């Protein structure tokens, strides 16, 4: 970053989850009961539910808390009562906007940003669609200007939240007075499949629902702790297009996740990060999207990270599951909470997220406590 570039930062972060809480052990027990006619699948489901690193998740669908016999999403002999894709999209349309609105209001309050100053709205989701879209509804309900530049990023997977952050930085590099509101809403549990197949059970084991939002802009001298954004990097990894597949089905979206994904990330990402670090050494902070426990573990191994360095990612996975595109902002919020609680000084970091393609999105950042923001602005130093 050149000294003439504006300081661009995450000024505020907000998150929201539905009221329905899924306990992992209880969900595994009820699912195993639904799979009693296929005992091998039941045993496998119990094992993967225990090993995936999730203890609690949230869902917009209260039926997912019902008994095995009454849950319409669990495996059953007949598909007659299983919610269709149209049924699931009706639920998505009803439940997505309130969650996104809650997260957006929290982000605006957290960043002390007036609604009238928002110039761009980026909405992100891969778990549902409707028109007029969530971007138009949120713009009206938040009271954004009718002329706000709306950019929907739809159906591009778990990496999309970080993609939106990188895009926001590019927008502000071209117009330093711009302020970008990003709202990510994912209702992943709507796509739980009534299947005893391992691929479906694996996806069922760790995805959760939630929303996250952030404000990206140039900070004032009175802002509290922020993440200053630096160089971003996006790459389509070779020979991996079929490792993560997300298709429309008659009963929601059908997701396939290859068990080879952590190994591929572990072998391909180090070279990409070495290019970003340019021999400057590894950063202190690692905001890794916990697409699964295996992804965090392989990166921890490859870069010799400490337990503390991956704790924000694993804490979010434990408490919320994988919330697709919304997850990276949950991780950054948790990281900031730890850093402010510890009274930490400025620290360098890297954020990473992965999605279909396989795609990797990365951005360098620096944590700046409130006490040094004004000094940082005056010096013009970058990340």
UniProtKB/TrEMBL annotation:
Domain Chalcone/stilbene synthase N-terminal: 9-218
Domain of life assignment: Bacteria
CDD domains: CHS_like (cd00831)
Claim: Oxidoreductase is one of the keywords in the record: no
A molecular function (GO) term: acyltransferase activity, transferring groups other than amino-acyl groups
Pfam families: Chal_sti_synt_C, Chal_sti_synt_N
InterPro entries recorded: Chalcone/stilbene_synt_C, Chalcone/stilbene_synt_N, Polyketide_synthase_type-III, Thiolase-like
GO biological process, one term: polyketide biosynthetic process
Key words, A-Z: Transferase
Catalytic residues (UniProt): 158 (acyl-thioester intermediate)
Residue ranges of domain Chalcone/stilbene synthase C-terminal in the record: 235-365
Gene3D superfamilies: 3.40.47.10
Protein family according to the UniProt entry: Belongs to the thiolase-like superfamily. Chalcone/stilbene synthases family.
UniProt-recorded name of the protein: Type III polyketide synthase
Organism: Paenibacillus foliorum
